[in-house]
Specification:
Length: about 180
């Protein structure tokens, strides 16, 4: 039997950072399904969708990438502060951008969990879910994170996932375990 959480269930932001095709969206969906099955309110703020509305018009310069991350960080903090488990599969390549989001959560004592989906770039480029690595290699795209645009790995993440040697379910379960350790599920 599962116990439904009460109205005071604590929310949290779970930020999944990593390279394109690292597995962020896939893990977010598995985790979201499990949490919803347990009766939690869950929101997935996926980078691609957000760029179609909240961040429409932003590009991929350092400044625009930061603006995108700060907007998502703000929305996620508001959701999490109000009891939602907000899962954020967004590349967020810059350490200072991610740090600002963490500080925003600290300021309201809202739980924040940073997960580095640390799939090596050669595995990501083989997966190439959206064909970005191929387009970059063919000279039809520039500014691909981890290839010809920076990716600053988290220095002290709450969890590091080696997805190249895990199933998506195992990766999602590892994130769930961190939430459980913190009393958030
Ligand atoms: N352990 C794992 N965790 C997550 N994905 C995995 C794992 N093992 C294999 N995969 C596969 O890797 C691919 C990851 O694609 P996904 O769209 O989730 O990447 P992403 O990080 O969201 O990329 P992008 O930044 O471009 O949106 C999927 O095809 C997924 O099935
Ligand atoms: Mg994705």
């Amino acid at each position: 039997m599962t116990t439904k959480p009460g109205p005071r269930a604590r929310g949290a932001t779970v930020w999944l950072t990593g390279l394109p095709s690292a597995g962020k969206t896939t893990i977010a969906r598995h985790l979201g399904e499990r949490l919803e099955a347990e009766g939690r309110r869950v929101e997935i703020l996926d980078g691609d969708e957000i760029r179609r509305f909240l961040s429409a018009g932003l590009g991929f310069s350092r400044a625009d990438r930061n603006t995108n991350v700060q907007r998502i960080g703000l929305v996620s903090e508001v959701l999490a502060r109000n009891g939602v488990l907000s899962v954020v599969p967004v590349i967020a390549p810059y350490a200072d951008s991610r740090e600002a989001v963490r500080k925003r959560h600290e300021a309201s004592a809202t739980p924040y969990v940073e997960v580095h989906v640390a799939t090596p770039v050669d595995v990501c480029s083989e997966r190439d879910v959206k064909g970005l690595y191929a387009r970059q290699a063919a000279g039809r795209l520039t500014g691909l994170t981890g290839v010809d645009d920076p990716y600053e790995p988290p220095a002290d993440p709450d969890l590091v996932l080696a997805t190249q040697s895990q199933t998506p379910e195992e990766s999602a379960d590892a994130v769930y375990a961190v939430l459980a350790e913190r009393g958030l599920v």
